[in-house]
Amino acid sequence: MTTFVDVEGAQLPVISDCDIVVVGAGPAGQAAAVSAARNGASVTLLERYHHLGGMASGGMVLVLDDMVNEGNEVVTTGIVDEFVDRLSKQDAAVFPPSEDCLTNWEMWKKWSRWGCIDFHQTGMPQPIIHAVAFDPDAWKRVALDMVVESKVNLRTHSWFSDVIREGGRITGVIAQTKQGRQVIRAKYVVDATGDLDVGAAAGAEYIDGQFIVTTVFRLANVDTQKAIDYEFAHPEEYKKLDREARRRIGGAWGMWWLKTPIDGVVWCNCPHMPGYDGISVEGMVTSEVEGRERMMKLYHFVKENMPGFEDAQMLGAAEQMGIRQTRLLQGEYVVTKDDVKSRRHFQDTVCRGRDYYTPYRALLPKGIDNLIVAGRHYSVESDAQKLSREIPPCMAQGEAAGVAAKLALEGNVALRDVDFTAIQKQMRAQGADPGDQPSPNALIEPVAAE
Ligand SMILES: Cc1cc2nc3c(=O)[nH]c(=O)nc-3n(C[C@H](O)[C@H](O)[C@H](O)COP(=O)(O)OP(=O)(O)OC[C@H]3O[C@@H](n4cnc5c(N)ncnc54)[C@H](O)[C@@H]3O)c2cc1C
What we know:
The chain is an alpha+beta fold and 450 residues long. It has twelve helices and 25 strands. The strands form eight sheets. Strands 1, 2, 3, 9, 10, 11, 12 and 24 form an eight-stranded mixed beta sheet that branches. The protein has a four-stranded antiparallel beta sheet with strand order 16-17-15-18, with helices on one face. A three-stranded antiparallel beta sheet has the order 4-8-7. A hairpin with a 2-residue loop joins strand 10 and strand 11 (169-177). The chain is globular and about 65 Å long. Flavin-adenine dinucleotide (FAD) binds at residues 23-29, 46-49, 54-56, 59, 61, 63-66, 159-160, 192-195, 197, 214, 216, 269, 322-324, 375-376, 389-391, 394.
């Protein structure tokens, strides 16, 4: 029999009464849900779209990076690793074997157009490192398999709209669906919306961050080998064409096209469009129109001028606008740019990416006992987030948040009272690197955990 709760005079059905609700099924949310469920919690996962994966699938962000510290030390293991394994089994992931992770022109020619480079290094050729090019639809399949296998109660097509809060706790979340509003009651809540939707609704402190937005797209029928050969045989001519292509698209990283696991299909991680607010409807409508205009300008130019692109076809833009940064939690600890750049290690580090460490406190809002965040909206300065927001570290945050929520449930305590050493221990037990043992290049300046 359905239970109803009174929300400001409206009787809303309770469609789930669970231990942990995870809101948002992007890279962070799916990892959080799987991690908590595998540890024995009853978990409901809410997602507004029909697919799982967020930016990694619907946003068509197609290279996993920030996975290695200097010297090719892989630091994002656990669920990230499992994902890569499962994608590989579907022929949907490409990455260099360790013997190819070198710094020379031969390996550069072989791997750079897969995006497997250390783009933080400025000298050329940049080192080839462990990074993974993958297919977005395979990501959706793998995510779905893992969520279903872990017996997570999946609620897609459910747009989080509000919280039910009693004092310092959230007792439930409300989702808008085609069937009307529905309530999910939970003891602990993971906000993995990327935009801090839950935290903002619950009154958590945050800042409005902003970064470039992108209508990522793909081209098909590209002769990638011909394009690469031309680039190497005629570097000056290529540079000229490339410069003009970038002018047409209006902003791109060093490599505006990268190979994907589907032969002849290339990923275009551009244009760069600054000044748009990723949570305003007006901003998203205008940027969609602008992005689509710009991508067609680039398409026509390269088709007519760039060797290898003569027969290219527009495969289309990603389903989701590429949003890199919006609201950022200002929680128990705010990670600074200096923390990231200096590789500062924290005693309560529970996950890591590249050469930076994330303290447990940076996942916790102030003043709300049972809410934890995971993903690109974690507690961080805007400039620091730009350096620490890649998919694998967001997944690692999700894995840690899932563990933390389950430990809080077991102890019936507020999330901030969970012993961070217990999170580190459990992360290790499930194959993830919690970053408790700093690498030799870390800045060891322990900050006392509160
Ligand atoms: C154009 C672009 C290029 C990038 N390039 C790279 C790259 O090369 N390599 C890399 O590793 N990273 C890259 N990134 C960064 C990376 O994609 C993101 O930082 C990462 O996906 C963040 O994961 P997340 O789970 O925190 O958020 P998201 O991926 O944004 O997922 C959030 C999820 O929550 C859901 N959601 C949001 N609000 C609600 C709501 N109200 N109700 C229900 N569900 C909701 C969303 O639909 C989504 O599924 C790039 C990002 C962009 C935009």
